[in-house]
Write a structure and sequence with these properties.
Elements lengths: L7 H46 L2 H7 L3 H25 L7 H39 L7 H14 L16 H4 L9 H13 L5 H16 L8 H38 L18 H34 L6 E3 L8 E7 L2 E7 L5 E5 L1 E4 L9 E3 L5 H27 L19 E4 L8 H18 L1
Parallel strand pairs: 5-7
Antiparallel strand pairs: 1-2, 2-3, 3-4, 6-7
Helix pairs in contact: 1-3, 1-4, 1-9, 3-4, 7-8, 8-9, 9-10
């Protein structure tokens, strides 16, 4: 009993399903690796925040003191070094293969541990220097202004570096436990928590703006916490929502990273490599979701283009052409140009960003000099003998073209609106490609045609 023969449309649907299944499986593997990578990057960003906030206000208050100025400068320098190292580590290019991503993650994790130890040592030395000075200035304790500065330093030093996790998974419960609007005891905690949320690079622009207004009011009333009770109440209402939205954004960004890695791998040979968008560049989760939808569509288009190129190579080889060679045309920024050669005949194939395909028998010659950013250009002048040869190639290709189209259709490359231009000597074009040579001496063309004929006879 013979089965029903599948239609071309059914074959195409099955091919698309299989390509999508393969894409989703690869995306799953990439996602497992990029989730771990993003977790480490988040730790780097939390560490950056801790470095930025650590002793910031205290240094500003005590730097004018001559005996502490050098210590402040030294600690500032340590913070600068650490920030530079963080930027250097997080700027590492994300690989496209899961094992390579995992290796990078392990390296980043190890380097972060070393960097934290370096910073902790610098923070400890700075704290020791402040303690020595504090003890030596006991007789100045009657000076209220200076005593107030030292008091702020002491409060800051009660927070060990190990406790500065800047993890928003659990917000401080202290704010909700305070009764009768007595916020004095935890005012510094409120300022710190609000600052941490504002500095998180996953927060939406609108929420950051709201929290910045609250933070400014809190800082203006640092000496009188009760005067900013209204701002604190507003902050209490926003903090939970902000934290929840940050978690949602981070989960979306994990998905976006995996999609980007897949897209970047598909475009690794492109003349316009893909670049990942940092968290802080997205205004909101909605903007990130829109980017993800577009990226998903781009990936599907790239996978389809890769399939088309593979089928083109196989079909063109059946008609005695070489594998397609990608060329970068001067002034062309979209689509992809492929060059297929057969003896002294050349066919240029252009695949647009929407996967529309154009075939053109074309002349070929060498490109002089060392062009920057491209390796091919159209020749402005074509000799009469070259025009004759290219016109002859056009006529030959016109007879082969229907067979190529039919073969591609059998492989699922379906052409929609087909436009065919007749061979025309007055519209022939010639392309100049770096590393190529002219194909239009009569002797060269005759020899190439004889070799091609012999090759076809041997195959029979």
């Amino acid at each position: 009993m013979s089965g029903r023969k599948q239609s071309r449309a059914e074959i195409e649907r099955e091919r698309q399903k299989e390509l999508e299944r393969q894409r989703q499986e690869r995306l799953r593997q990439i996602r497992l690796a990029t989730d771990q990578y993003n977790a480490v990057i988040n730790k780097y960003e939390s560490f950056r925040t801790s470095v930025s906030l650590s002793m910031k206000n205290e240094i500003a208050a005590i730097k004018p003191v001559a005996e502490l100025s050098m210590a402040c400068d030294a600690f500032d320098q340590i913070k600068n070094v650490v920030n530079g190292k963080i930027s250097e580590q997080t700027a590492a290019k994300l690989p496209s293969e899961p094992p390579a991503i995992n290796a990078l993650t392990a390296e980043l994790r190890q380097n972060l541990t070393s960097l934290e130890k370096f910073y902790k040592s610098g923070l400890s030395d700075f704290s020791d220097r402040l303690n020595i000075y504090h003890k030596g200035q006991a007789e100045l304790s009657q000076n209220l202004a200076f005593a107030k500065t030292l008091s702020k330093i002491e409060r800051q030093q009660k927070v060990n570096y190990q406790d500065m996790t800047f993890d928003l998974s659990q917000l401080s419960p202290k704010l909700d436990e305070v009764q009768n609007e007595d916020y004095s005891a935890i005012y510094d905690d409120i300022l710190e928590e609000c600052t941490i949320i504002i500095n998180d690079n996953a927060i939406a622009a609108a929420e950051r703006s709201q929290l910045l207004k609250i933070l400014n009011e809190l800082q203006e009333n640092a000496d009188n916490p009760q005067a900013s009770s209204a701002a604190i109440h507003q902050y209490k209402l926003l903090r939970g929502t902000a934290k929840n939205n940050i978690n949602i954004f981070n989960e979306l960004y994990n998905q976006y990273t995996a999609l980007f890695v897949q897209f970047s791998d598909l475009r690794k040979n492109s003349k316009t490599p893909a670049t990942i968008t940092p968290k802080e560049k997205f205004e909101s989760a909605a903007a990130l979701e829109a980017e993800m939808r577009q990226l998903d569509e781009n990936i599907k288009a790239e996978i389809k283009r890769a399939y088309i190129k593979q089928q083109l190579d196989e079909v063109m080889q059946k008609f005695q052409y070489s594998t397609g060679e990608t060329i970068v045309m001067r002034g062309v920024t979209k689509g992809e140009n492929l060059l297929f050669e057969s003896g002294e005949q050349t066919v240029q194939v252009f695949i647009s960003d929407k996967n529309q395909i154009m075939f053109e028998p074309i002349g070929l010659t060498g490109l002089a000099g060392e062009p920057s950013g491209y390796n091919a250009d159209f020749s402005e002048e074509i000799s009469e003998s070259a025009k004759d040869a290219i016109f002859e190639d056009q006529q030959k290709f016109c007879s082969t073209w229907p067979q190529i189209v039919a073969e591609l259709k059998l492989r699922g490359v379906i052409f929609g609106d087909i436009k065919v231009k007749e061979a025309n000597r007055s519209t022939v074009r010639q392309i100049a490609v770096a590393g190529k040579h002219s194909k239009y001496s009569e002797k060269r063309r005759q020899t190439a045609q004889e070799q091609q004929l012999m090759s076809m006879q041997n195959r029979r």
